[in-house]
Design a protein that fits this description.
single chain, 338 residues, mainly alpha, Alpha-lytic protease prodomain-like, Alpha-Beta Plaits, 2 domains, two-stranded antiparallel ribbon, 10 helices, elongated, disordered C terminus, Cation diffusion facilitator family transporter, Cation_efflux
Length: 338
């Protein structure tokens, strides 16, 4: 998996370098600020892809004494660096565009410039799409962020061609700076999105997608002895996950039975979630006066009350630090599974 990530990032760096040369040549012959906008974003592509290559290498390193949870969070940092560079490029583009509005200059060879930018856009579009798809498959925020950035660059290139076409056919050269400012705003917006996601990951902000996936896996493999799961936490470290949860089991289980059920929960999550998953399970004994009402254990030898309810396991109640007998979201007995 790590070798696939590295190979994709190396391809991204190589393609970005080639397109960088093409775009700056296009700016050199046309003197268009709009094309300069595209060229400057390509510099960001190269720098960000190089950093992404390093982050993929670092995130693949095993755990050590100084990093007991591994090095996966570097991927969040990488995405934040890329977003920051995008924002800085957008700010510089706005500055250059305002300067050109005040001190305009003649544009030339616009059809050649459009052709070169169009070629760059097609290549970036394909590369960005592939990186985003592979990033989701490999659960790599670095690949997905790099792909999103490159795909955004492709979209802006095609919009840029449209704008340059209007300038060429109308002769309204001031529109070059106007379009550049609009592109810069779009670039800054995408940079903010990446920075926001990066900060969320570094701060261990709750990821609804990761939690809902974990809940679905547990529901699909739910066993009758798993009376209750609560106080569940899902943390992400790049493409890897760390999960803590409390598992309520029948109080009469001996230590070996408890160990086996805990191991089953760990296996279910480790085998069905993407990336490497580390699971810590804290076992709790059931409380007959409260748990019997929703306990799913058939023919329980110590049951004190009949089963009358079944609790839906969802992200909200499984994340709370309390057993589910406090919950009010119950299914009536007629809707229960036998």
């Amino acid at each position: 998996m790590d070798s696939v990530k590295r190979r994709l990032i190396i391809i991204s760096v190589t393609v970005s370098l080639i397109l960088l040369v093409i775009k700056f040549y296009s700016f050199y012959i046309t003197r268009s600020n709009a094309i300069l906008t595209d060229a400057l974003e390509s510099i960001v592509n190269v720098v960000a892809s190089c950093f992404a290559l390093y982050s993929v290498y670092l995130s693949s390193l095993p755990k050590d004494e100084n990093h007991p949870y591994g090095h996966g969070k570097i991927e969040f940092f990488s995405a934040g660096i890329e977003g920051t560079l995008i924002i800085l490029a957008g700010i510089f583009i706005i500055y250059q565009s305002v300067y050109s509005l005040i001190y305009p200059q003649q544009l030339a060879f616009l059809p050649y410039g459009m052709a070169l930018v169009g070629f760059s856009g097609v290549v970036n579009g394909v590369l960005g799409y592939v990186l985003q798809i592979k990033g989701r498959e490999l659960n790599s925020l670095t690949l997905e962020a790099d792909g999103r950035h490159i795909f955004t660059d492709a979209i802006s290139s095609f919009v840029l061609i449209f704008g340059i076409g209007i300038i060429y056919f109308t002769g309204m050269f001031f529109l070059d700076s106007v379009f550049s400012i609009l592109f810069a705003g779009y670039i800054i917006y995408n940079g903010y999105f990446l920075v926001r996601r990066s900060v969320a990951g570094l701060m261990d902000e709750t990821n609804p997608e990761a939690i809902n996936t974990t809940v679905k896996v547990l529901n699909d493999s739910r066993k009758e002895n798993w009376i209750d799961i609560h106080n569940m936490r899902v943390q992400q470290y790049g493409g890897d996950s760390h999960i803590d949860l409390h598992l309520t089991l029948p109080y009469y289980f001996d230590l070996i039975q408890v160990h086996d059920e805990v191991h089953r929960v760990e296996e279910v999550l480790e085998e069905n979630l993407p990336g490497n998953t580390e699971v810590f399970v804290h076992a709790d004994p059931c409380l007959p006066e409260s748990c019997c009402h929703y306990c799913q254990v058939r023919d329980c030898p110590v049951r004190k009350y009949p089963k009358s309810k079944k609790i839906r396991w969802n992200a909200e109640n499984m994340s709370k630090n309390q057993k589910h007998y406090h919950e009010l979201t119950f299914l009536p007995e007629s809707n229960q599974e036998s």
